[in-house]
Specification:
alpha/beta, seven-stranded mixed sheet, HutG_amidohyd
Length: 282
């Protein structure tokens, strides 16, 4: 992937799009020059998510991933910078600190309004235009579209949440972005396959801007976010190396989850619902 690309899009043949908005690691030179050593470390990356989901192409899925780091702009935040978790600590559209609250920029080098608008134009809008277009293409082909938001995060971040995060954090915006039944089935499958790895639905992470905005079951677009605790597949300290034994245990279950999600047919659900409410003729 060349650094002049804003994103990479692979178009699959099936109904699923996998979006990985925080996997990028590239820092453009003009931005890199303004970052502190902490910012240059890009510690809050969703490390190796693209490797974890590399099987998705074989399932016929499309995938979309950015080139740039989330420290350039957070593609999973609204363009107006609104806080998706009111009353809780978070990082914004243009992050100024790490998850731990450590400044990302050298003193006096934070982006001004003009720079923020430039980044919106250069990075945020193209990614979202591509996401919208791919969902529209999938829906035109299949009659519905499925969106899987692939994320990961360190398991312990006191500034963001108490204690240790569950390994599997499914989010559907409290049921607004995806059929409740399929979300619960994914949760149950995870709990059955990996009972020693805690899994929750709509816990601390309920789905970010992408899940909440594009998931619309009434329009036959179902979106679910999975936030993985990184200790389930890698070392959570630099150099953030993959743990092959953990990956070998986790990856087959991720594949099963995507296969199960792909097997969900919203039109079948709608037909079943219609049949249930039919009134027998007198």
């Amino acid at each position: 992937m060349s650094t002049d690309q804003v994103f990479t899009l692979h178009q699959g043949s099936g109904p699923l799009l996998v979006s990985m908005p925080h996997v990028g690691t590239y820092l453009p030179p003009d931005i890199r020059a303004k970052l502190s050593p902490t910012g240059l470390a890009i510690d809050d990356t969703d490390w190796h998510i693209d490797s974890l989901y590399d099987f998705a192409i074989g399932l016929g899925a499309s995938y979309l991933q950015p080139t740039c780091s989330r420290y350039v702009i957070d593609l999973n935040r609204p363009a107006d910078g609104a806080n998706l978790y009111p009353g809780q600590n978070t990082t914004g559209l243009f992050p100024l600190t790490t998850f731990d609250g450590v400044p990302l920029y050298l003193e006096g080098c934070e982006p001004d309004e003009a720079e923020e608008q430039r980044r919106l134009h250069m990075y945020w809008h193209p990614y979202h235009y591509a996401l919208q277009a791919e969902l529209a293409r999938i829906k035109a082909k299949h009659g519905y579209a499925l969106l899987w938001e692939a994320h990961s995060i360190r398991s312990v971040i006191p500034r963001l949440f108490e204690g240790s995060l569950p390994v599997f954090n499914f989010g559907t915006a409290d049921g607004a972005s995806c059929d409740l039944g399929v979300a619960q089935e994914l949760l149950k499958h995870t709990q059955a396959r990996l009972p020693d790895m805690p899994a929750v639905l709509n816990g601390r992470f309920k789905g970010g801007y992408i899940t909440r905005t594009y998931g619309n079951p009434s329009q036959h677009v179902h979106a679910i976010q999975l936030e993985l605790a990184q200790l389930s597949y890698m070392q959570e300290e630099p150099p953030y190396a993959l743990d092959s034994k953990r990956v070998d245990r986790l990856k087959p279950v991720l594949s099963e989850l995507l296969e199960h999600f792909i097997g969900f047919k919203p039109h079948d659900q709608l037909a079943a619902s219609v049949r249930r409410v039919e009134v027998p003729a007198a």
